[in-house]
Design brief:
The chain is of the alpha+beta class. The chain has two domains: about 55 residues, SH3 Domains (SH3 type barrels, Roll); about 100 residues, Fe-S cluster assembly (FSCA) (GMP Synthetase, Chain A, domain 3, 2-Layer Sandwich), CATH 3.30.300. It contains three helices and nine strands. A six-stranded antiparallel β-sheet has the order 1-4-5-6-2-3, with no helix packed on it. The chain has a three-stranded mixed β-sheet with strand order 7-8-9, with helices on one face. Strand 2 and strand 3 form a beta hairpin. About 30% of the residues are buried. It comes from Melaminivora suipulveris. This is Putative Fe-S cluster assembly protein SufT. InterPro entries: Fe-S_Maturation_MIP18, FeS_assembly_SufT_put, FSCA_dom_sf, MIP18-like. It holds the Pfam family FeS_assembly_P.
């Protein structure tokens, strides 16, 4: 797997909220602002604006003239045994906005488990995950993306994402594909 960096110049078409990288601080981009797309993975966009990296949520893709991403589709009558593989597939659509590798292949997801809910056909999904660095300002944004995407799946009634830092993350947790993609 080879990762090629391709930048695309775009014009911000409407005022839109973004998050600065790596702090995660929310800011607004004004209509008419020039930007470069440096990464478009997992439904969000990493933009370079006047030397600052920013994350634009996929639901706001129209602000830069792009189509919003398609959600992973699954039948509403999904059998519970098919839910776990679907969640792992969904987690592979979540990316750290600074790294062109999904959070599963980065080794950030430590545990995935289910807890029963009162509704017999629904479960609570509990995910323990970490970040590449404990002080990463994008942690909340990544956890929110995980919540939004997994909660949209059938049979999921609730989700809890726990950011944990024990054991600490290191490169040995990355998949071979991730290491190759990053040239490690």
């Amino acid at each position: 797997m080879t990762y090629r960096r391709h930048r695309e110049d775009v014009l911000v078409r409407r005022t839109v909220g973004v998050e600065t990288i790596p702090s995660g601080m929310p800011v607004e981009l004004e209509a008419g602002q020039l930007a470069q797309i440096t990464q478009a993975l997992g439904g969000s966009f990493t933009l370079l604006v006047e030397g600052q990296l920013m994350r634009l949520k996929g639901q706001d893709a129209d602000a830069i003239g792009k189509e919003p991403p398609q959600a992973i589709s699954a039948p509403q009558d999904l059998h519970i045994d098919d839910l776990e593989p679907l969640i792992w597939e969904t987690l592979r659509t979540c990316y750290d906005p600074e790294i062109p590798v999904n959070i599963v292949d980065l080794g950030l997801v430590y545990e995935l488990r289910f807890e029963p809910l009162q509704e017999a056909d629904k479960v609570r999904v509990v995910i323990d995950m970490t970040l590449t660095a404990p002080g990463c300002g994008m942690g909340e944004a990544i956890a929110d993306e995980v919540c939004d995407k997994v909660l949209a799946l059938p049979r999921v009634g609730e989700i809890t994402v726990n950011l944990v830092f024990n054991p600490p993350w290191d490169r040995s947790r990355m998949s071979e594909a991730a290491q190759l993609a990053l040239g490690l």
